[in-house]
Design a protein that fits this description.
Elements: H1 3-11, H2 21-34, E1 44-51, H3 67-76, H4 81-89, E2 93-99, E3 110-112, H5 130-146, E4 151-157, H6 161-173, H7 177-180, H8 189-204, H9 211-218, H10 221-235, E5 239-242, H11 245-257, E6 265-267, H12 274-283, H13 299-313, H14 320-323
């Protein structure tokens, strides 16, 4: 069924037409993507894509690069915020190594999609080759198609990935670095000034770029793989829940590479990173929540899942006819 048919179904329910506002709009979107109006069948999953970034060498993060590998271990030990929220919601978590510099664990439950031991320093040259950029998208597409859940949440981990996301967003949108840059892991004022200088220098190496070229020049292994996963999931009738700033940069790349895939995307929340608001406005995307979060890991995406399921539950309401409730009177 198409979106108009689903909207007509909701309009017959025991409520004034449109009285549930954006929740109705969300229900129609989800049903149109999945062709399912049963919230109990809308299984969800979270995948966290992890990788390191060579631009960390420029001192753009408040944390050292080894934290990426340490956090991967923490995810696998179910000790992170994403694990806590996912556990409460009964959502399974998968962790993907797209190119962590220091892998501290070797476990079967760590999915291997390594493209190298972190990208090169994009302030000095291309972050990766064209071939690796294409592989990131391709392997992500295969992964996105393979997921069995109908609601897919994607998160990320990688020291300096707000820098890569800022540069990628700049190349795709033309938004100034100054309007995209944020504190990331919590750099102080001096650190933010330094980060801005580094990113403006990195951005100046090239002009506006085609999407795959932008990924190669300034992107991250996990951002490219996530973008591919979004494309694959959207193409296989799944709802893609977009997390914060970095995931939104990945979604912008996905939308540029596969126009139309945004119909399957739901933007979970507005991050406290100033660049996220700029990106959401450029994409004309309306986030569901605004909790001033800026952690990443898919935490915001997870919080959107109960809202998505609740929206679809509206299809289970009685109609005016079923409930023998009088509907709207004809105009006289």
């Amino acid at each position: 069924m198409n979106s108009r048919t689903f909207q007509q179904l909701l309009d017959q329910k025991t409520k004034p037409i449109g009285s549930l506002g954006g929740l109705e709009e969300l229900a129609v979107r989800v049903a149109s993507v999945t062709n399912d109006t049963r919230p109990g069948t809308l299984s969800a999953s979270l995948t966290i894509f992890a990788a390191d970034h060579g631009i960390a060498e420029e001192g753009v993060s408040a944390f050292p690069q080894e934290v990426t590998g340490q956090m991967v271990s923490n995810f696998l030990a179910e000790g992170a915020a994403a694990n806590a929220i996912a556990g409460e919601l009964g959502i399974p978590v998968a962790v993907v190594d797209c190119g962590v510099k220091d892998v501290l664990v070797s476990r079967e439950d760590l999915i291997n999609m390594r493209l190298g031991a972190g990208t090169a320093n994009s302030a000095q040259g291309p972050a990766m080759s064209q071939e690796v950029a294409a592989k990131a998208i391709s392997q992500g597409q295969s992964y996105g198609r393979s997921l069995t859940s109908k609601i897919v949440c994607f998160g990320e981990m990688g020291i300096a990935n707000t820098s890569s996301a800022t540069l990628l967003a700049n190349k795709l949108s033309g938004i100034l670095i100054a309007d995209l840059i944020g504190r990331g892991t919590g750099v102080d004022d001096a650190g933010l000034k330094h980060k801005k200088s580094v990113l403006e220098r990195a951005a100046a190496r090239t002009g506006r770029l085609a999407p795959i070229d932008a990924l190669a020049e300034v992107g991250g292994f996990e951002i490219g793989t996530m973008a591919g996963a979004m494309i694959g999931a959207c193409a296989s009738n799944k709802v893609v829940v977009v997390d914060g700033f970095i995931a939104t940069a990945a979604s912008a790349l996905a939308r540029a590479l596969a126009p139309g895939c945004e119909a399957s995307m739901i933007y979970a929340h507005r991050s406290a990173e100033q660049g996220h608001t700029a990106m959401l406005e450029w994409l004309k995307a309306k986030p569901l929540l605004d909790l001033q979060m800026r952690l990443g890991e898919g935490t915001g995406a997870l919080l959107a899942v109960p809202i998505i399921r609740a929206s679809v539950s509206l299809f289970g309401m009685a109609s005016f006819t079923d409930a023998r409730v009088s509907g709207r009177s004809a105009d006289k």
